[in-house]
Amino acid sequence: MVLRTTFVVLCIVLGLALFSNSSEQENGWIWAAAVGVVVAGLVLGIEYMLRQAKPGVLLGGAAGLACGLLLAALAAWALEATIPDVDSLPVIGFLLLASFPYLGLIYGVKIFTAAGILGQPGAFETGGTASTSNKILDTSVIIDGRIADLCETGFLEGAFILPQFILNELQHIADSSDPLKRGRGRRGLDVLNKIQKMVDIEVRIVDEDFPHIREVDSKIVMLAKKMNAKVITNDLNLSKVAELQGVRVMNINELCNALKPVVLPGEQLRVFVLKEGKEAGQGVAYLDDGTMIVVDNAKRLIGSNVNVVVTSVLQTQAGRMIFARLKEETEGQEVPVARS
């Protein structure tokens, strides 16, 4: 901001130095200062557009502009060589110099974008239209740690975007006086360190922040919209808010639920009854993937391995729950099965 202010002041001073003495009007210094302000505004506007543009836009535009200038110069030289005495030749040359570079700039960007040079197609659009292979990590998925295992399997590709405000939040949690929070924060930092060391994974830390937004979740959604990126999270509320605003979300919990083995009513399982259920006589067991199984009349068998028959499967947003009966109770009778 200081540099831009200094630049504007410098342009005004130069305008006064160059034009105030040559102006015949009484208030010539005002017009000279206005010229400096206009020039400064144009330059700052161009600087802003260049800063918002992706590298491919700049490269494609520069290449197209150079080709346009070259073609305009060749065309003007050819016209001057063939018809040197035409009075309108300067006008034609000006039109060539005005049109060819502009066309070269426009088509240079389009050609580079279509060809996917230096990146995937669409990576060279300006503003918030970066490649959708970019994925923004939120605090919950980093602390969870399963994202590192997914990276090792090779199922996730593209660049992981780590906003500086997420990193600051992790550091704040790691410095907490609460031992539990401190352990979670340090685990998250260890997970990030592990991911950064993976050869096939690119982690980019971005300084983009939104000072007018206080909530971290809102900042994540805003950054995802600006970068046209996906959000990887375990936070159900963040998932809903992001989807409402048109941001694509990858929820690790939903992925894990989708990868769990399918259990059908009537299927037999052998499980370990771990504890008592909520209803009278029920026992609770768990599959290896953490799915809870509620077994009727299994309270008396807590601490034992038993054979059960699945009667129904309940699928919710929080996960899957299986209801079963002891196999010994179903022998010789038809098992009433249902799927919710």
Describe the fold and architecture.
The chain is of the alpha/beta class and 340 residues long. The chain folds into 3 domains: 1-21 and 28-115, no CATH class; 135-258, 5'-nuclease (Rossmann fold); 267-332, OB fold (Dihydrolipoamide Acetyltransferase, E2P). It has helices at 2-19, 28-52, 55-82, 89-115, 139-144, 146-153, 164-174, 179-196, 216-227, 236-244, 252-259, 327-330, and strands spanning 135-137, 159-163, 202-206, 230-233, 249-251, 268-276, 283-286, 292-296, 305-316, 319-326. It has a 5-stranded parallel sheet. The protein has a 5-stranded mixed beta barrel with strand order 6-7-8-10-9. Helix 1 (2-19) runs antiparallel to helix 2 and helix 7 (164-174) packs across helix 8 (179-196).
Strand order of the largest sheet: 3-2-1-4-5
Average pLDDT number:
78
Q: CATH superfamily of the largest domain, called what?
A: 5'-nuclease
Task: State Rg.
Answer: 33 Å
How large is the share of residues in beta strands?
A: 15-25%
Tell me the major beta sheet: 5 strands, parallel
Q: What is the 3D shape?
A: elongated
Helix count? 12
And the CATH topology of the largest domain? Rossmann fold
Order of helices and strands: HHHHEHHEHHEHEHEHEEEEEH
